[in-house]
Every structure is written in structure tokens, then in C-alpha cells.
Amino acid sequence: MATKEAKAPATLDLETRLHMYRTQVALRQFETRAYDLFLENYVKGTSHLSIGQEAIAAGVAEAMRPTDWTFATYRGHAHTLARGVPMTPVFAELMGRANGLMAGKGGSMHLTSVEHGVMGSYAIIGAHLPIACGAAWSAQYRGTDQVAVCFFGDGTTNIGAFHEALNFAVIWSLPVVFWCENNLWMEYTRTSEVTAVVNPAADRASAYGLESIIVDGNDADAVYQVACDAVELARAGGGPSLIEAKTYRHGGHSRADPGKYRPDEEIAEWMQRDPLPLYRTRLLEAGVAEEELAAIDESVRLEVELATEEAKAGPIPGEDLLLKDVWADGGAAWRN
């Protein structure tokens, strides 16, 4: 089966483009601030940033409805924010504060906001693919038009759950879209060194009767178009899609990883394909005034500053939260 190389649409309305630009700027500024907070010891443990991969989160979220579901990996800050979750509770969650998204109990790798359709970030590689299938199956069973969208890294394609979920989704024609964010590296190992095919997701699509689709993950317009097609196919009962988005994380695997194992020339090449300046240039060429883009940049900067201070002001969680949300009936007192 031939691989389909997805391209950016010839035309896209300016309002949508400006919104995707703002989303990408917000994700970049948020993640940059999260890194600073880590260095300042406000963020405990580690975190996994999406700097360099913002176009995927922005483009896909733009194609989704509020009632659709997002399933993300531990690198899930961007996908959470792109669905409309405010910055303050996400910053606060990273800091382990009581005003965090999950009252400080989940941290960086377990962001969840059912209200916004964000059905969790998952620290176990591949664990959420079958769960996304379950959500899609429930939508199919209940007769709603909801779609589950599941993001994962290139390393996940070598995990058993990836193959099980793909097979299950196709057999039941589930309304689920699988997005492989291929940033070339499985933590510290180059994906190509341990994978039998060149394109870890797209080259395996045919094994499940799916179209092989590759998109430039650093081009928000191209991502948006592919996402619209896949989401609407799923919504109309056409079954699942598997999409491989080529991208590159600017930093190491996590904040504990300086990423020195990657060749300097590779990093330099991908820095030239940074999604933000590329998208900004495209908007300028489309006639958007520099002043309008600068105003967006500044509004995001102010949003980040306010959210940072609000998060820092949050209290440390008390002992009363230890058993909260652990049992469905509210607590363990009656068991003792």
C-alpha cells in the first residue's frame, strides 16, 4: 500500500490560522516557563516537554469538537492546554499545589480534565491506546458522534498494546484516530536502530487494512487538514485512522536528560524547521500585520506571567487529600 504524504491545504481561513498561531505560541511559552520553574526547584521530579512539537497539538485540537476525547502520553502538557485547559491549574499541578488540575496529586505525567475532554496523560508506554479504543467503543455503543484521539510516540509502535489496539479498532470500526508523534528518538535510542521499518507507524498501517499516512508534524496547517479528514471519517462511521507526524523535540527526553547523544548537525537541521517561526512567516506572507502577531505574543506572555504567579500562590495539599478520589465511595474509613 502506498504511503500518502499529507500536505498543507492551499487555502485556510485566517481566523483558524491565527487561533492555531496563538495556540502554538502559548504552548511554547508555557513549556519554556515550565523548564525555568524546574530549574528553580518549583517543579518536583521530572517533566517531559513538547518544545518543537507544538504544531501537532495545535492542529489536531483545532479539528476536534468539545465533546471529543484526547488521550495523551506523559508528554501531555501541550495536548492538555490545546483543548482549552487554563494555564494556572496546569502550572500548579506541575508544582504539586492544591490549586492544581488534580489538586497536586497527579503531577506532570497524569494531567486530566474530563470537562475539557482530556481523558488523561499516561506514563506507561502504550497503556492508553486500548483505553482510547474503549472510549470510542462506548461512543459507538451509545450512538453519540464523539471521537477519541490518541497520541503516542514512535517508541510505542514497538509495544504490544499498539498492535492490539489497532487490530481491535479496525475489527470494530471504532471512531478513534491514532497519532504517532515521531520525533525519531525512543528516549535515548534512535528509533530506526530498533525498528524493522523506516516509518514506525505508517509502514505498519497496511497490516491492519489502514491507509498509510505521513504528515509534516511541524506544519500546523497540514496537521489540521489531516486531522479534519480523519476525525470526520471516524465521526461518520468510517472507522479508525493511523497517522504518523514527523517532528522533533528540541530538548532531551525529559528535564533530567541533556540530549547530548543526538548529533549536532541533526539538531541544527531540525531547528531550521521550528514550527513557530515557520508558521509566523507564513502568516506574514498571507498579509497578517507584524503588529497583530506581536500583540498575540504579548497577550500570551502576560497570560503565562499571571498563571505562574497564581500557581505559585497555591497552597501545599493537606493530609485530607491523601484518600480523596481513591475509592468510588469517597474514602476508606468504613473499611477500617
What can you tell me about this protein's structure?
α1 packs across α2, α1 (14-39) packs antiparallel against α9 (275-285) and α2 (54-63) runs parallel beside α7 (220-235). The protein is globular and about 55 Å long. It has 336 residues and is an alpha/beta fold. A hairpin with a 2-residue loop joins β6 (185-186) and β7. The protein has a single domain (3-314), classed as Rossmann fold (3-Layer(aba) Sandwich). It starts with a strand and ends in a 24-residue tail after the last helix. The mean pLDDT is 94. The longest helix is centred in the first third of the chain and has 26 residues, at 14-39. It has helices at 14-39, 54-63, 77-82, 87-94, 128-142, 160-171, 220-235, 264-271, 275-285, 290-312; strands at 3-6, 69-73, 118-122, 148-153, 176-182, 185-186, 189-190, 212-216, 241-246.
Instruction: Give the rounded overall mean pLDDT.
Output: 94
Strand content: 5-15%
Q: Which range best describes the helical content: under 10%, 10-25%, 25-40%, 40-55%, 55-70% or over 70%?
A: 40-55%
Number of strands: 9
The end-to-end span amounts to 60 Å
Strand order of the largest sheet: 1-8-9-5-4-2-3
CATH architectural grouping: 3-Layer(aba) Sandwich
Number of separate helices: 10
Structural class: alpha/beta
Number of structural units classed as domains? 1
* CATH H-level superfamily title: Thiamin diphosphate (ThDP)-binding fold, Pyr/PP domains
Shape: globular
CATH class placement: Alpha Beta
Kindly identify the CATH topology: Rossmann fold
Instruction: Describe the largest sheet.
Output: 7 strands, parallel
Query: How do the SSEs run, as a string of H and E?
Result: EHHEHHEHEHEEEEHEHHH
**Any idea what the radius of gyration is?**
20 Å
Low-confidence spans: pLDDT under 50, at least 5 residues?
none
